[in-house]
Amino acid sequence: MQDKKPEIMESLERVGVTGLKTIVMTNWKNRKYNFVPEIELTMDLEREKKGIHMSRLVESITECIEREVEIRRGSLEEVERNILEKLKERHPFNHAEITMETDLVIPRKTPVTGKTTMETYSVAVKLSSDKGGYTKLLSVEVTGNTVCPHAMNKCNGRTHIQRATGILEIETSYENRIDLEDMIDCVEDAFPSRVYTILKTEDEKRVVKEMYDNPKFVEDVTRGILRNAKKRFKNCRIRARTVSEESIHRHDVIAEGSCMS
Amino acid sequence: MQDKKPEIMESLERVGVTGLKTIVMTNWKNRKYNFVPEIELTMDLEREKKGIHMSRLVESITECIEREVEIRRGSLEEVERNILEKLKERHPFNHAEITMETDLVIPRKTPVTGKTTMETYSVAVKLSSDKGGYTKLLSVEVTGNTVCPHAMNKCNGRTHIQRATGILEIETSYENRIDLEDMIDCVEDAFPSRVYTILKTEDEKRVVKEMYDNPKFVEDVTRGILRNAKKRFKNCRIRARTVSEESIHRHDVIAEGSCMS
Amino acid sequence: MQDKKPEIMESLERVGVTGLKTIVMTNWKNRKYNFVPEIELTMDLEREKKGIHMSRLVESITECIEREVEIRRGSLEEVERNILEKLKERHPFNHAEITMETDLVIPRKTPVTGKTTMETYSVAVKLSSDKGGYTKLLSVEVTGNTVCPHAMNKCNGRTHIQRATGILEIETSYENRIDLEDMIDCVEDAFPSRVYTILKTEDEKRVVKEMYDNPKFVEDVTRGILRNAKKRFKNCRIRARTVSEESIHRHDVIAEGSCMS
Amino acid sequence: MQDKKPEIMESLERVGVTGLKTIVMTNWKNRKYNFVPEIELTMDLEREKKGIHMSRLVESITECIEREVEIRRGSLEEVERNILEKLKERHPFNHAEITMETDLVIPRKTPVTGKTTMETYSVAVKLSSDKGGYTKLLSVEVTGNTVCPHAMNKCNGRTHIQRATGILEIETSYENRIDLEDMIDCVEDAFPSRVYTILKTEDEKRVVKEMYDNPKFVEDVTRGILRNAKKRFKNCRIRARTVSEESIHRHDVIAEGSCMS
After folding, report:
1. The complex's ipTM?
2. I need a labelling partner for A194 at 20 to 30 A (CA). Which of A138, B151, B172, D171 fits?
């Protein structure tokens, strides 16, 4: 049925499965990770075919995940490349893409008392396969804050402060090794201060001091992310976005920018 | 089919439609409102009946909304009572409930420059019909902020500030007139300061001053909402909840309480 | 403060407000509409300026909305153009964008019994201002269904059916008049059958018959949307996406395509 | 500061942290699980105290999670009891509650071809500590489908089918051992058919056959969940809720019920 000619002859760019949640285990820098990512896997469809064989996409995911358990490959993009290669054997395509969105938990130390905390970040890894090879798009989402320099100036050192979210996206070749942990650092270092799950009073005093010593607009945070990423990663297309949940407004403010490195 | 005996004989408490979005027009204190609420309408189902007649629930909503356009009833709970009465004529029940969730837009003035702003609030009105008559549950959700008194004390007047959401729920008899606008005031007055969609520099200075002059934990805001509501509304069951989107943490902090008036 | 040189000199593409909810009233084909859209308004920021003046963006929205009440302009893109023109007077930019996302309620008749129902659609209108003038991106999201032709073939006329969502986006010049209602028709006509808020038994029989007479993969629906839009609208960039909430899987399936007309 | 008398003297029922995401590792029936749950931990606050010490709540979570890695306790409620006991040592309370929401991935076999699939379920475990001891509330959310018996009857065996979600909640004493896997079975067995991540053509034919042989309203599914749970679990308060994403409507239909066992 899928191989029949469709009534309307029009090629499609992305056909596949989305919102598929499954378990993915990797071994990355000698630490084991168990993720339950949300996966989207799509391929193009030529104009003469009515449909794709959806179950082959899911089988490619499942088989690679099982295999992965044994061979313990490393990064999420390595797992994804295995899936796209497996898919290629089962189902022809010109273009295919796979995205995994998941939580990444990283242990940290609080700034003064040195307590261990576990900090959780949303990350996404997308791998695209074209005639010319593999391209990846890595993305991290990091919680921080903004501290208004304008209000601080007008109100004798008092100001409004709020939670903000910084997002860094990097598009580059498959071979260009970029660690998600380093991308997260680029974003955290662009905020007035880092945030932590535990803060004892002495830690909290430090965080507040950093906020006031280092006031930043949402525009400043985005520029900081761009600069940090440009310094650290080469041969990349870099995109940054910061959203500040204003404490004096119902709405948010945003700043987006991009550059090449 | 719905009136057949079901294989498993077990009465059900709430059967109906949910997530139904439609238009509701009312005339409230000589101002016309057009809402597009999300509606849930349910009724109980006795153990000997396989199912309810879902289309009658939807017809009760639709007819009342059409009628409403003409007779221009006032509050959302009046519209809801019409719907439950219409439903009663079409489909027997012991207990039925209807909830409408919508946005309420209220014009305000900024605190210093007096500019007009439109402020938007999430509100919900639920009406329950039982043997004994009608009971309503009114709910408003208001954006504000918290300003940490503990950090202010430890950091010489500096502190962390963040957006917070205050929720006030009031359960009372249908006849007890309670205005959603007054409920919103109870919540807004419990925050360190109100928030506004527009703030010119002089307004922003005032808001920042109020924040620092009036630092509050999430617990303080919840207690303030309870006190304000207890003073203003009589013969009610009152519930308050505040969620503060901490600017120094990834997680939120909450405080919930309740009282009778 | 905003006009100072920033520490990091990097131009930004989109700086502004997001998630701002307010009331917008229009008069469109002699019918009055009251929307409470969610608005995003952004502009570019040159590398030598630390920040934009956020309150001027909000003022541009507020003033135009007030004015709108009086002059009763028509489409959402006309309201948006007024806002961007107002903004241009207050704050220089090279590029600015405004998006309004809202619900659109349209009265329909059920297919057999001819009952009036109110059907609700998510729509978005985005207007971009560049040196060369205005470009718009119109988007509608419509609920429908898919009916698997493969299973129908293998199971003697039985098959799995599920709710699906079709999205049509059209990018064109400001001057090219495209009605959101017509875009919605293009999507609804691509499904196996339309869906309705009320269905009496005779209506339901018709809808079920249409489903079985007209089985469609998610790929077929997307191709149908593309064809319908290509026929109806000229000088447009057209993009279609269908998501099917499979009744036999936990995950969804999708199909996306695009074309020019 | 937290121990000061508050301006408004009103006791609060639930004060604490919410939306905290961290890693929890357990060893359950000789299988290791790595969860990244979303955690809410609250306690009551007496009327004479201004606030609680939030960092002690987070420390109780963190320490137990670290300890957990070593001692490899079993169920999520065991981890939660450790956290509440740890909290009791640090911070006095009358009532405290902890909830963990996470994904649970379970391997299954497809019905005909016997392929291994990984199926993912949303689960939540809440533990409450009161004077009288511990009570738990277990919850599972399972994807399935509904198949309309009314339409099937009126349309000669044709009908509308759609994805549905079944939720089972069980409240019982801490000591009453209830496996989340068994709760999931109670819900899956109440649907017309189970759903699977992979389905080869022969599997899909079986699933479609089960759907048509076993048509069910949303009311039937809820009653089935209640019956299955009542048979399997004793001394429980049972609550079931099914939401059906109608393929012929924009809105959903629901059925809720409860019973004791």
Report:
1. 0.95
2. A138
